[in-house]
Task: inverse folding
């Protein structure tokens, strides 16, 4: 159970982004998304058809061809489909895509508000790997290549393990933070949770539970 201090911060945090950051700290520490947040502090979830889900409309996503489109167009959706027949090949493709976006497309420079990965989780992993090895980290352009590769491998494995876990055990909503969506014209645009939504699509889940945000 989080401290009174932590609970107070969550209660007064009007922004879903602020709440999500706080909850993720607890989630990362415990390894489980606390039911406390779901039952007491969270808005009720809305169950929607997977066909109503759309990717964010962002400039970097537009370059990759999935901005504003069905989650089926999100590249990892294809990797998850490949995984049903050949997990190792799917992992290689996922790794290759992450590397291409990060290095060749300079995703690490693109702000997250534009759909980029600046200061995102992959960059954070690579930064932490540098610190663990006593190497100063400034940016991806001059980072240690072997640690970039290691970071990408960690991230690719994390997402493939996520898919495998849902495939084998089913999707247990209480184990994860909510999937946030904004609504427009009867469609639900993802603010987070792309990989979970992609996994559920590939595994044939007809509906997805989301939290509506403004």
Result:
């Amino acid at each position: 159970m989080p401290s009174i201090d932590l609970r107070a911060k969550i209660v007064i945090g009007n922004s879903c982004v602020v709440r999500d950051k706080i909850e993720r700290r607890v989630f990362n520490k415990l390894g489980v998304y606390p039911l406390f947040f779901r039952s007491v502090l969270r808005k009720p979830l809305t169950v929607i058809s997977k066909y109503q889900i759309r990717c964010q409309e962002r400039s970097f996503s537009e370059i990759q061809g999935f901005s504003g489109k069905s989650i089926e167009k999100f590249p990892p959706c294809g990797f998850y489909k490949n995984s049903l027949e050949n997990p190792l090949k799917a992992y290689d493709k996922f790794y290759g895509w992450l590397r291409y976006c990060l290095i060749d497309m300079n995703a690490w420079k693109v702000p997250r508000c534009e759909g980029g990965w600046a200061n995102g989780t992959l960059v954070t992993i690579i930064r932490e790997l540098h610190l663990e090895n006593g190497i100063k980290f400034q940016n991806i352009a001059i980072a240690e290549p072997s640690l970039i590769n290691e970071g990408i491998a960690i991230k690719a494995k994390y997402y493939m393990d996520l898919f495998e876990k849902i495939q084998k055990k089913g999707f247990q909503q209480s184990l994860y933070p909510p999937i946030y969506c904004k609504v427009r014209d009867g469609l639900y645009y993802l603010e987070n949770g792309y990989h979970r939504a992609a996994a559920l699509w590939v595994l044939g889940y007809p509906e997805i539970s989301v939290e509506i945000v403004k």
Summary: Residues 145-169 form the longest helix (25 residues). The chain has two domains: 1-42, 43-212.
